[in-house]
Specification:
Mean pLDDT: 91
Shape: globular
Radius of gyration: 25 Å
Largest sheet: 9 strands, antiparallel
Number of strands: 22
Low-confidence stretches: 1-10, 386-391
Helix content: 25-40%
Distance between the termini: 66 Å
Bound molecules: adenosine monophosphate
Length: 598
């Protein structure tokens, strides 16, 4: 391997400089850059059915118009839209209508959003632009990371990535998750060459469609190439935790495979078997070394597994914010003192922001908006401090403002106009502006906008629930137990309705401690609507339901079985899905009701 340089050969550093300079240019004077982006989108999709609907038959010559006039005309004529508003148009595309509905260039590929937060998967148009921006943001983020954590050229990345099956829609369009399209794209290959860091697993492993077998092979190859591994990554942190927890159970089989240069019979998919067998060779010395390390790690509950097994890894890189924050504790346990770098902020609809401060703790990470990727607007959101108003209203909204007019400390919902044919599309994420890089805002991800827990006048979001669960589960660590995963449900079948929080825990905990956890969580919801309703008993005592070990794996299997991809999987933090609730109730082992407010 060559000397330290993140991007490999002699060109590495100049590549880094080029992309950082490019970002510095576009993040300066963002008002103009954003208007130019909007102009490009409207020009590209001039005359499409959806825009005609709002612009009327006027054939606006966008190129000739004053930029400010064009922007205000667009935002005054085209209304804000939700996915439901655009769904009939997207469905026609999926059914094979090739007329210019949302875009002038016919859409040939559709992405499926993960569907694990909203309960159902949504089709989103995917174009070459989607893969190109993915490559661009990954290269930019890599350039910033390499300033802080340089990696060796021609090294490897142990990437826990998973493609799901792609399929054809009724109209013959290719459909699959955005990550699946990306892993199959030319841009994914180019990224490896540009960053001179190569993924350990061949395409046959990434695309096998069986996440358990893929995880096994990722681990096997990651260990086979352990000396070359410079960093460990996944899309969402959940996948890394999931992979190492399965390693705890499978390490002996993996060592045997490394010793013999073989692949366990558990790996039944022929293409994947062959691809892995083509790579690995018998290495008994390495196998005994890993065995000795694992025997030692067992005694410390696998603390520091990553730096012990991958001594050259410089950092672990993945999305660790939002609903992934829960897995940080376990990730830190596996990683010891190895830096955790929180990855970029994006969605199937569009990439949004890049992490420019890789050394920041994941809890403090912000994302600088990419002003050429989409046209962004921000709906100011004000929390209701009174419980007045309808139970379905979480925030009071103001009129949307453009990117150049956001204010530090203010919370907003993001609205996107994309190159892929989404116009003033409400993304449903709540962010807070925490500062600026040049003129582009740095966003802190707060939560999904959709209310999670509602019985009557109470309003609790994903973030509120997360804080409450953190408080409640602190008691577990004092008793050498840990919270593996959690979800919740507002149970309305009996009056008064109440919240149920489901926990899967590792370790033995006395019932009196769990009672205390339950009470602590109930008392920790600070939303005035909840507090008042609990005091007057119009919301009943919170219920803590402990489920068997492995229940959340079953939930994962349920989602994967319905077409979700592990790379995009996020445990739903609140659910009304009847099948999921059945799984949770089937594996319930203990239930507690809170004594707070009694
Ligand atoms: P999907 O398009 O279904 O894969 O999920 C996109 C959603 O994941 C976004 O709208 C966010 O709610 C969440 N998300 C993506 N990136 C991040 C991030 N870096 N931090 C927190 N949440 C994220």
């Amino acid at each position: 391997m060559e000397a330290e340089d993140s991007n490999g050969n002699g060109n590495g550093r100049s590549n880094d400089h080029d992309i950082i300079r490019w970002f510095d240019t576009i993040s300066t004077n963002v008002a103009t850059v954003q208007r130019e982006t909007l102009r490009q989108i409207l020009e590209l999709n001039r005359g499409v059915e959806y825009l005609k609907k709002w612009f009327g038959d006027k054939d606006l010559d966008i190129r000739e118009m004053d930029a400010c006039e064009m922007e205000s005309l667009y935002t005054s004529l085209v209304p804000l839209a939700s996915h439901e508003d655009l769904e009939p148009f997207i469905q026609r595309i999926a059914d094979g209508d090739t007329s210019p509905i949302l875009t002038q260039h016919p859409i040939t590929t559709l992405s499926l959003s993960s569907g694990t937060t909203e309960g159902r998967q949504k089709f989103i148009p995917f174009t070459r632009h989607s893969s190109e921006t993915t490559l661009q943001i990954f290269r930019l983020a890599a350039a910033y990371r390499s300033r802080v954590y340089p990696t060796r050229s021609k090294g490897r990345i142990l990437e826990f990535i998973y493609s799901s099956k792609r399929f054809k829609t009724g109209g013959g369009l290719m459909a699959g998750t955005a990550t699946t399209h990306y892993f199959a794209s030319e841009e994914f290959r180019i990224k490896q060459e540009k960053t001179k860091l190569f993924t350990c697993s061949p395409h046959e492993v990434i695309s096998s469609g069986d996440y358990k077998q893929t995880t096994y092979c990722h681990l096997l190859l990651g260990l086979f190439f352990h000396k070359e591994v410079e960093c460990i990554t996944s899309t969402f942190a959940y996948s890394i935790v999931q992979a190492f927890s399965s390693f705890e159970e499978q390490w002996e089989d993996i060592c045997k495979d490394i010793k013999e240069g073989n692949v366990s019979n558990k790996i039944t998919l022929p293409k994947m078997r062959k691809a892995v067998l083509d790579i690995i060779e018998p290495n008994p010395i390495l196998a005994s070394r890993i065995e000795a390390i694992c025997e030692g790690l067992q005694g410390s509950d696998w603390f520091g597994l990553v730096p012990k097994l991958w001594p050259n890894a410089k950092y672990v890189y993945s999305i660790m914010t939002g609903s992934m924050q829960h897995y940080l504790k376990k990730l830190r346990h596996y990683c010891g003192s190895l830096p955790l770098v929180s990855a970029e902020y994006g969605s199937t609809e569009s990439w949004i922001g890049v992490n420019l401060d890789p050394s920041l703790e994941p809890e403090k990470v912000t994302f600088a908006v990419m002003p050429t990727f989409s046209y962004f607007e921000f709906i100011p959101l004000y929390r209701q401090d009174q419980y007045s108003g309808s139970g379905s209203v979480d925030f009071i909204e103001d009129d949307p403002v453009p990117l150049s007019q956001v204010k530090v400390g203010q919370e907003y919902e993001i609205v996107l106009t994309t190159f892929t044919g989404l116009y003033r599309y409400r993304l449903g994420d709540v962010v807070e502006v925490s500062g600026f890089h040049n003129e582009t805002p740095k966003l802190k991800f707060i939560c999904r906008r959709k209310l999670l827990l509602v019985v009557n006048i109470d309003k609790n979001t994903e973030k509120d629930l997360q804080l409450v669960v953190e408080r409640g589960s602190q008691l577990l660590s004092k008793h050498r137990a840990e919270l593996v995963d959690f979800t919740s449900h507002a149970k309305l079948t009996h009056q008064p309705g109440h919240y149920v929080i489901y926990w899967e825990i590792k370790g033995e905990v006395e019932e009196r401690v769990l009672c205390e956890c339950c009470r602590e969580m109930d008392a920790s919801f600070v939303d005035p609507g909840y507090v008042v309703s609990r005091r007057t008993n119009s919301i009943g005592p919170l219920e803590l339901c402990i489920v068997e070990r492995g229940t959340f794996k079953k939930i994962l299997d349920y989602f994967i079985g319905n077409g979700a991809a592990l790379s995009q999987f996020k445990t739903p933090r609140c659910t009304n899905d009847q099948t999921l609730l059945k799984i949770l109730d089937l594996y319930a082992v203990k239930r507690f009701r809170s004594t707070a407010y009694s």
